[in-house]
Design brief:
A twelve-stranded mixed beta sheet has the order 7-8-9-10-11-1-2-3-4-5-6-12, with no helix packed on it. It has one helix and twelve strands; from the N terminus they run H-E-E-E-E-E-E-E-E-E-E-E-E. The radius of gyration is 27 Å and the shape is globular. A hairpin with a 5-residue loop joins strand 2 and strand 3. The chain is mostly beta strands and 253 residues long.
């Protein structure tokens, strides 16, 4: 059971669909409609993590909500994270300590992403290579139509440090000669990590516009998360508010 104790229920069922009425009104007067909001949902998620070193996999549960105005909440047994894109704030709830912390969200910088038609610049040495995106098409996962995409990030190549040739040093009168570089012990070699690309596969519901199945494979292991939509009703506003009895804690400096 998750720490928040909230369920995927809607206490506002039966209210008139304001968004639908507004769309009809806009169509009648001939005005240009704004982009439709994302559909609300509530899903229960199960995550399985398998370490690359072997051993028994670990299991964990979570729950996610999204409102039509963009508010988002992620619940785990110990903490919850609530984000509000309009106020540019995130709330972190500690269910064990009954504490809440409000953190400002960094706004997205416009114009950072290059257009799809822009040519890919080869990655410089010591920089991450461009992400390869593959369209996996449509499929069905437990009755939900989904669209899949695969994101592959090549292994990171650290920059090579240039060799430091030993320059001849002048010997001062009356002082012993400095030890040669050959007599200085060498630093231990840094172990090389296996060059395994990071692959993320995401299957998103075509109706709810939310991930249903996510697979992540890295050199550390594999993680699979399946989210089962439980409700498509608008979440109650209290889902995205600090619960009563929680102490407000200032963010860390």
């Amino acid at each position: 059971m998750l720490g928040s104790g909230l369920m995927c229920v809607n206490s506002r069922a039966g209210l008139p669909n304001i968004r639908q009425s507004r769309a009809k009104l806009i169509a009648a007067v001939g005005e240009s409609a704004t982009p439709p909001p994302l559909p609300p949902f509530c899903s229960d998620c199960a995550t399985k993590t398998q370490s690359a070193g072997g051993g028994a996999p670990t299991q964990s549960g979570s729950r996610v909500w999204r409102a039509s105005d963009g508010k988002y909440r992620l619940d785990t047994p110990k903490i919850s994270i609530i984000s509000d894109p309009r106020s540019q704030q995130a709330i972190v709830l500690d269910h064990l300590k009954k504490e809440a912390m409000i953190i400002p969200m960094a706004p997205k910088a416009p114009g950072m992403a290059a257009p799809p038609s822009a040519p890919q610049v080869p990655a410089a040495q010591g920089q991450a290579a461009p992400v390869k995106v593959e369209d996996l098409g449509k499929s069905m996962i437990e009755g939900h139509e989904v669209e899949g995409k695969r994101f592959t990030l090549p292994p990171f190549s650290p920059p090579k440090m240039p060799a430091m040739p030993g320059a001849p040093q002048a010997k001062a009168p009356g002082l012993p000669a400095a030890p040669s570089l050959s007599s200085v012990p060498k630093a231990p070699a840094v172990p090389t990590l296996p060059k395994v690309p990071s692959v993320t596969e995401i299957w998103t519901s075509t109706k709810l516009k939310t991930p249903v199945l996510t697979k992540v494979a890295t050199a550390a292991g594999e993680q699979t998360t399946y989210c089962k939509p439980m409700s498509t009703d608008e979440p109650h506003p209290s889902v995205f508010q600090i619960p009563q009895g929680y102490k407000l804690k200032p963010p860390k400096a």
